[in-house]
Amino acid sequence: MPAISPNKPYRVGRSRTGLGLFATKPIKKGAKIVRYFGPLLDSKKKKDDAIENKYLFELNNRWTIDGSVRKNIARYINHACKPNAESDVSPRKRKVVIRAIKNIEPGDEINYDYGTDYFKAYLKPIGCKCDACEKKRKKQRAEARAEKARLKARAEKKALRKAEKQAAKAREKRKQKLGQKGKPGEKLNGKPKPVNGKRLNGHGAKSAAGKVASAKSGILLQARPSRESRASA
Ligand SMILES: [Zn+2]
């Protein structure tokens, strides 16, 4: 770990991605935190242009700061998509200062946005590990889990409905079979069939009595004409 004066409001410490810069004192919004410095590289010089590392800070088309030197404490500051600091660039002065854009509390990690080019080249391929992106991933994972659970519950409900339908169908089939085999006029629930019921009580008895009465009257009718025929004769 690099030696940092205790007067400074930060220290180097362990972060999610390795090392990072953390506030040790409150840092006010707008305050300068640390300068990003190192040798200036001139893109017009072949030797300078050939240098490649993760700490190159491009000021403009021509000038780039090589921040890979150990003394450059700012190189410990990690990227964040929703940072609490920014890189304040003065291309004319060829100077970069990291400045707070929010009030930073002791213990907070200091971050700034490295910019689109760096993000595309170094962070996108491995996945950005900043708080905002981790939160986003967590939320997406939770949503995916919830969606999976929802689909599973729906499938289970569907299977249950299907099983109930099949059971009802089987019950109906069994009922029909028993109905064909059983005594006529008898249903499974014990109630007699209405047609047979009519014969066994009420109208059935009346019609039977009617038959007897008509038979009796037939006798009378048969007797009467003989008397009449006798009288007419
Ligand atoms: Zn991010």
For the sheet with most strands, the description reads: 3 strands, antiparallel
Q: Give the beta-strand count.
A: 10
Bound molecules: zinc ion
Q: Distance between the terminal alpha carbons, to the nearest Å? A: 153 Å
Count of helical stretches: 5
Q: Stretches where pLDDT falls below 50 for ≥5 residues?
A: 204-233
**Helix/strand structural class:** alpha+beta
- Radius of gyration over C-alpha positions, nearest whole angstrom: 50 Å
Helix content: 40-55%
Q: Could you report the average pLDDT, rounded to the nearest whole number? A: 84
Describe the protein in words.
- The structure is a single chain.
- The protein is an alpha+beta fold and 233 residues long.
- Helix content is 43%, strand content 18%.
- Strands 3-9-8 form a three-stranded antiparallel sheet, with no helix packed on it. Strands 4-6-5 form a three-stranded antiparallel sheet.
- The longest helix has 51 residues, at 131-181.
- Zinc ion (ZN) binds at residues 81, 128, 130, 132-133.
Keyword list:
233 residues, alpha+beta, three-stranded antiparallel beta sheet, disordered C terminus, binds zinc ion
Summed up, what is this model?
This protein is α+β, with helices and mostly antiparallel strands and 233 residues long.
